[in-house]
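C-alpha cells please, single chain.
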Amino acid sequence: MSTGTTDGPPAGTTQGGARDAAALRRLAVATLEANWEHDHTVPSRTLYPHQWSWDSAFIAVGWSHVRPDRAWRELASLFRAQWVDGRVPHIVFNPALRVGSYFPGPEFWDSALAEGAPAAATSGLIQPPVHAPAAWLAYRRFPSAAGRAALCRLYPRLVAQQRYLATCRDVGGGGLACVVHPWESGLDNSPAWDAPMAAVPADVAVMRAYRRHDTAHADAAHRPTDLDYARYVAIVASYRERRYRDEDLATRHPFLVECPLFNAAMGAAEHALARIAPLAGADPGPHRERAARVTEALVRRLYDPTTGTFHPRDLRTDRLVPARTVLGLAPLILPDLPVRQVSALVTEACSARFGLAARMDRPLPSHDRTAPDFEPLRYWRGPSWMNINWLVRRGLLRHGRPDLAAGLRDSMIELVARSGCHEYFHPDTGAGLGSPAFGWTAALLLDVLADDPAG
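Here you go.
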C-alpha cells in the first residue's frame, strides 16, 4: 500500500521492525486531511460522519502540529453548539447529510424542543471534558498571537462547561459529576456499565423501529448487542421526554454513574484553565481550588484501597462497580493525585491485567485481560484505544515514570505501523479494528511522534 493512503500501514515501515516516522506522519496528516469537513474533522467518513465532542478535542491536538488554524477552527465549531446551560453536546450534526444516514440521528434526539439548545441540531448528552487541556496543548504546541486570541475567546465557554458539570451534574452531592448514559463516558460498551445497565428496562423489539448504522459498517460481533442498544435508546428516551432537563435526574433517570475518567478529565480541565486564565486576564486561583476539590472527591468516592484502583460509583445503589477497566487508570492525568494512589495505579497498570511495561509485548487493553468477560474484539470490552493510551502516557510522564511512558509510546506507534490509523486495535495481535482512517488515532499519533512530554 502506498504512502499517503488513509488505510493500512504506510510504506517505509516494517511489521515489528524499524518504523519510518516520516511515513507515519504523512499517513496521519493524510488521514486528517481526508476527514476534514469545512470547519471540523469527522472521526470517520463511514462510521461517524458528524462532529463528536471529545474526538474534536483530541483531533485539535493533532492539528496543532501541522495546521494550527484548523485546531482552533475545530474547537470553535464545536463550542458554537454549546447549550445555554453550558453543556457541550457529544454530537453536532451536519445538516448536509440526508435524514436516516446515521442512527441515532438528529430526528431521534429532537434537540430543538429543549430549552437552551443551540440552533444547530445536536444530541442532548455530553462527553468527557478533555477540551480545556486540549486547547492549552494546542496553544503550547504552536504559540502565536492568533492562537492566544482564539484561546482567550474559548476560555469563557470552557468555564461554562465546567460550571455545568459542577452544578447540574453533581447529582450525588459529593463534588463529582455523574454521567447519565454510557455514551457520555466515551467508553460506550465498557464492562464497567454492565451492572448499572442491567437495571435499565428495555425491549429488544424496540430496535426494529430503527436501523443501526454501526453494524452496517463494522462487524456486529465487534459492536454492542441489540439488547445494549435497546437500553441505550431507553435511557435517551427517558432524558429526551423531559427535554434534557437535569433538575430531577436523581428521582427519575435510570442511569446515574460517577465515572473515574470523566471526573479525572474534569479535574485536569481545571488545572488547564488555571494556566489559560492569566492569558485571558482572569484569576487562576479559583481553578486551582476547584481542581483540588475534584481530586479529593475522586479519591474519597471512587478509589477502592482493597483493589488499589478507581471504580465507577453507581448512584442508584451507591456502590462501586467491581469491574477493573482502564477507566481506573485515568486519574493518573491529575497532577495532584496523591502519591499513594499514583503508586497503586502504576502497580495496577503493570499487573497481568493491563501489562504496562517499559517494553510492551502486547498493547494496553481497555479491560482487565484476566477477567472472564474480557473480549478482545468487542468495542471497549478489551481492545486497545489510542486516546486512552495517550491519556495514560501523559499521566505517567506527570508522575515521573518516563520509562513506562516510553513503553506505551512505542506500543502506540507500533500499532499504527502494523495496522494503520484504525479506530481501535486487537489487544493481543495489534490488528486494526473498527473504522479505518480514524481521526483521533491519526491526531494523537502526530502528538506522540513529536514527543513533547511537557503539558
